[in-house]
Design goal:
single chain, about 450 residues, alpha/beta, Rossmann fold, 6-stranded parallel β-sheet, about 45% helix
Length: about 450
């Protein structure tokens, strides 16, 4: 294959950002092909002539551009994060529909395309990532690029009736179909998109992932993203992991440890999770004083009003639980609104008896896979996983719950705490097998195999 050209809102120009997720997958192919990574620099400028800033690292070229304040507000804050994000996570009530914001979103996609297209060469393969650039392929086509171009959506794709809430839904769908390959996290997301194309755009599902629509055939498949399974397993046995496990071990005092790790986001179901923890102590007196729950929630988009309100709600819920059940030597729910390093989290996962991953809606959720890979195979913990996380399609050996049913989640936590060693080991082995077989490298290879010449329609 020729050069891989990656396009995403934020890049891994900072080496510290290459420890996991997308960066791991893309970085290896970029290095192998002498590729290029385009994206936003993270800076806001008053200069209307936004040039590309070049940077080389380990054979990979980064080409970054600044945003003006108007672009940042319209494209990033307002349309990407206050329209697409809530709608695609089934929170139409939180969406801030605004025609001017979409105009800016489209203009930024087009400007990026005009800057990128002259840098592309015959043989290049373009891989665009996430909801910030759904219009990119169409913009690149208009800018003269005709080569293979793929798109991967890292967040869920909603049911057709929810997607139609976007005033620009037909425009977005047509632009998406300018990609040669469109990838989703889960089969449910692929189905939703194809069904919308059939119902609203007259598409024909040709089978085997191929859809004929808008006078062309596009590949539409689910490619569930994985993790660097072996790398995270190693991280769980690092010195930093040992230190984190020892620190919290002193606090636990032999109690059972339950952990959740999520960004501060309304899609993660954190208020419902806190309610479930309260129900655990309400309904199962045998857990009082014997179980400690820790929720780590780094702040996210702290300037957006909905996130500020979520922070206040979580503070109140944690206060209620700890006020009702806490004792001089026991805090039932530790709520930490700060970030920890990857190795520290791996160490905490390693000693946890239960991992809580209960989003209301999630594209994949890699925390659940990291939790599994950090476990001690001789005495593994139990994963409790929301049926609305994309990972639930792969990780059926977890305890699958409806996060809205807080009594059921409390019962699942209690069942996990009392599960036999044999059942815990059996469930863990089944989960670990899937995660190792379908890791981040597998995900990259599956997508690029379909996008490479000969794999594209």
């Amino acid at each position: 294959m020729g050069r891989l050209i990656a396009i995403s809102n934020r890049t891994a120009v900072d080496p510290k950002a290459r420890a996991g997720g997308l960066a791991v997958a893309v970085w290896e192919s970029l290095k192998a092909t002498g590729g290029v990574w385009f994206g936003w620099s993270g800076d806001i400028t008053e200069n209307e002539h936004r040039v590309l800033h070049g940077h080389y690292d380990d054979g990979v070229e980064f080409l970054l551009t600044d945003l003006t304040q108007e672009e940042h507000d319209g494209y990033y804050l307002n349309y990407a994060n206050r329209v697409i994000w809530p709608v695609f996570h089934y929170r139409i009530d939180l969406a801030w529909f605004n025609r001017d914001a979409f105009t800016t979103y489209a203009a930024v996609n087009q400007r990026f395309a005009r800057q990128i297209a002259p840098r592309l060469q015959d043989g290049d393969i373009v891989w665009v990532h996430d909801y910030h650039f759904m219009l990119m392929a169409d913009a690149l086509r208009h800018a003269g690029w005709a080569g293979p171009t793929g798109f991967f959506l890292h967040i869920p794709f909603p049911a057709p009736e929810v997607f139609r809430a976007l005033p620009e839904h037909h425009w977005i769908a047509r632009a998406l179909c300018a990609y040669d390959v469109i990838g989703f996290q889960a089969e449910r997301d692929r189905y939703n998109f194809v069904q919308y194309l059939i119902d609203d755009c007259g598409a024909e599902d040709l089978g085997d992932g191929h859809v004929k629509v808008f006078d062309r055939t596009t590949t539409v498949k689910a490619y569930p993203i994985g993790i660097d399974a072996e790398g995270f397993h190693a991280a769980a046995h690092s010195e930093l992991a040992d230190e984190a496990a020892e620190r919290i071990g002193r606090f636990l005092g032999g109690r059972e440890f339950v952990i959740g790790v999520d960004r501060m986001d309304y899609s993660k179901g954190l208020p419902e999770r806190f309610e479930a923890v309260g129900r655990l102590f309400d309904n199962f007196p045998d857990t009082r004083g014997k179980v400690s729950v820790t929720q780590i929630t780094p702040p996210s988009r702290s300037k957006v009003e909905e996130y500020q309100e979520l922070r206040v709600e979580l503070d109140q819920l944690a206060g209620r639980i700890n006020g009702d059940y806490g004792d001089l030597d026991w805090i039932p729910l530790r709520y930490l609104a700060r970030s920890y390093q990857r190795e520290e989290l791996a160490g905490l996962f390693r000693i946890a008896r239960v991992g809580l991953v209960t989003p209301l809606r999630d594209g994949m959720n890699l925390v659940c896979k990291e939790f599994v890979m950090a476990q001690d195979e001789e005495d593994p913990g139990v994963l409790i996983l929301s049926e609305f996380a994309g990972a639930a399609e792969q990780l059926q050996a977890a305890l699958i719950v409806n996060p809205h049913d807080t009594d059921n989640v409390a019962e699942a936590i209690h069942a996990a705490l009392n599960m036999s060693l044999e059942e815990r080991q059996n469930r863990w082995r089944r989960l670990e097998k899937v995660i190792r077989e379908q890791d981040i490298g597998w995900w990259r290879e599956q997508f690029l195999k379909d996008l490479s010449p000969g794999g594209v329609n």
